[in-house]
């Protein structure tokens, strides 16, 4: 059971989307919007005509409305990454988790139609309370199968080697963090490699739509 808490792909507590088409790269960013780093990523994605998915923290949405407008105006998908991203989020009761997710969803609805919903649990941890709250919010749950570990080092070469190995194995839902300076350089490597190898780019919203 404890393994199921940390591995969304097991669908132990709730169904989660953790893989996509092997010929399509799904760039996903957590923990923003970030006043310092998100805009540079958005500018690059616009230049390359690549759409991505941003799993935002509600409190940061309130702090960075201009960046949110940039995300919404860039043909990107906005997902819910909780309002608080609290350190003890996984220990909360269902009611408190629901209230947090609903508050975050309401902040996102200012920038994206409320029918377009997806949730990525903070730290990727799932348990019965979080699963029940997600069900109450009526949201899809999105994981990943290519974790770049860009929160652990600023060494872009090291991060890229790890990411590339997984891309070559068809693991294409890529987890990055748009509040980290290394995310932009890593994004550039991924997009360059993807275009050189005939890969498509898409948002996770299309994976949700395929299931509904």
Automatic annotation (TrEMBL):
Top-rank taxon: Bacteria
InterPro entries, per database record: Glyco_hydro/deAcase_b/a-brl (IPR011330), NODB_dom (IPR002509), Polysacc_deacetylase_ArnD (IPR050248)
Domain called NodB homology: residue spans: 23-202
Keywords for this protein: Hydrolase, Metal-binding
Database matches in Pfam families: Polysacc_deac_1
PANTHER family for this protein: CHITIN DEACETYLASE 1-RELATED, GLYCOSYL TRANSFERASE-RELATED
Annotated protein name in UniProt: Polysaccharide deacetylase family protein
């Amino acid at each position: 059971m404890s393994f199921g808490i940390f591995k969304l792909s097991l669908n132990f507590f709730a169904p989660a989307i953790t893989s996509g088409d092997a010929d399509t790269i799904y760039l996903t960013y957590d923990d923003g919007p970030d006043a310092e780093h998100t805009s540079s990523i958005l500018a690059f994605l616009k230049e390359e005509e690549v759409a991505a998915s941003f799993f935002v923290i509600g409190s940061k949405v309130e702090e960075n409305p201009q960046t949110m407008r940039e995300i919404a105006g860039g043909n990107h998908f906005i997902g819910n990454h909780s309002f608080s991203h609290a350190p003890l989020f996984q220990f909360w009761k269902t009611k408190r988790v629901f209230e947090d997710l609903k508050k975050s969803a309401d902040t996102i609805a200012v920038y994206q139609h409320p029918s377009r919903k997806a949730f990525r649990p903070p730290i990727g941890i799932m348990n019965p309370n979080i699963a029940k709250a997600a069900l109450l919010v009526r949201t899809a749950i999105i994981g990943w199968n290519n974790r770049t570990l860009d929160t652990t080092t600023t060494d872009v070469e090291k991060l890229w080697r790890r990411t590339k190995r997984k891309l070559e194995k068809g693991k294409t839902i890529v987890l990055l963090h748009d509040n980290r300076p290394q995310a932009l350089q890593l994004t550039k490597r991924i997009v360059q490699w993807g275009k050189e190898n005939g890969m498509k780019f898409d948002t996770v919203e299309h994976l949700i739509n395929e299931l509904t």
